[in-house]
Amino acid sequence: MPTITTPDGVEIYYTEAGTGRPIVLSHGWPLSSDAWQVELKVYSDAGYRVIAHDRRGHGRSEKTANGHDMDTYARDLAALIESLDLHDVVVMGHSTGGGEVVKYAARYADGRVSKVVTFGAVPPLMAKTDTNPDGLPIEVFDGIRAGVLADRSQFYQDLSESFFGANHGRAVSQGDKDDFWRQGMLVNLVAAYDCVKAFSETDFTEDLEALEVPILLCHGDDDQIVPIDGAAKKSITLVKDGTLKVYEGAPHGIQGDYQLALHRDVLAWLAG
């Protein structure tokens, strides 16, 4: 099983496919690199070397209770990219992973990154604060933590409905919902719980402003998990070289027609 070890001694699992210019994928909460199985094939078939890792505490990576903050996640990503000696890298992140790749590209890339792509990403800041009055109330995230702690299995089953937009009438198979649950159940409980604070309360404003490479911000306008108005529509105003792509009726989860559209648009943007 391919792994790297971070500077603080945590074993991180990764998988890869293809050859060519590297694309590194960072998954959302509470998932794993398995969320990128289709992208591993589609992008590798298009001529890229595609790499996806399991965040610490998630999937097949070490079930550590330590380091569940966004800065550590970004440093873990740096350790992976440096261990594989990747250059001219495209980093892509979904949801929490979008915050991870933005912080990595802004703070730790050391010239290795050429482009950034995010999907339903959490930046600039999800939680409501005095300086972010349009954010979501902290009670929303307290509810997530309470659900994970009380009965995470049922919580992930329930969350899959809004994650994929099934509750808004989107065609979502039971298999997609079950796979969301399966990946969620692989997360160490401490990691799942603590990651909520990381993705909701981290302010990425300075990271977005510091980005020196182009970024493509993809977001569905029916995202019930990370509402677009407080996320991509704000992020695009903070970056130097950004492109915002809004998907009408698309949910938070990358699935179905939304997934097909993302593949087409991302590959076109990378080739441009």
In short:
With 272 residues, the protein is of the alpha/beta class. Helices cover 41% and strands 17% of the residues. The radius of gyration is 17 Å and the shape is globular.
Number of helices: 9
CATH class: Alpha Beta
Radius of gyration of CA atoms, rounded to a whole number? 17 Å
* Second rung of CATH, namely the architecture: 3-Layer(aba) Sandwich
Strand content bin: 15-25%
Description of the molecule:
The termini are far apart. This protein has an eight-stranded mixed beta sheet. Helix content is 41%, strand content 17%. The protein has one domain (3-271): Alpha/Beta hydrolase fold, catalytic domain (Rossmann fold). The chain is globular, with a radius of gyration of 17 Å. The chain is α/β, with parallel strands linked by helices and 272 residues long.
Question: Which key features would you list for this structure?
Answer:
single chain, 272 residues, alpha/beta, Rossmann fold, 41% helix
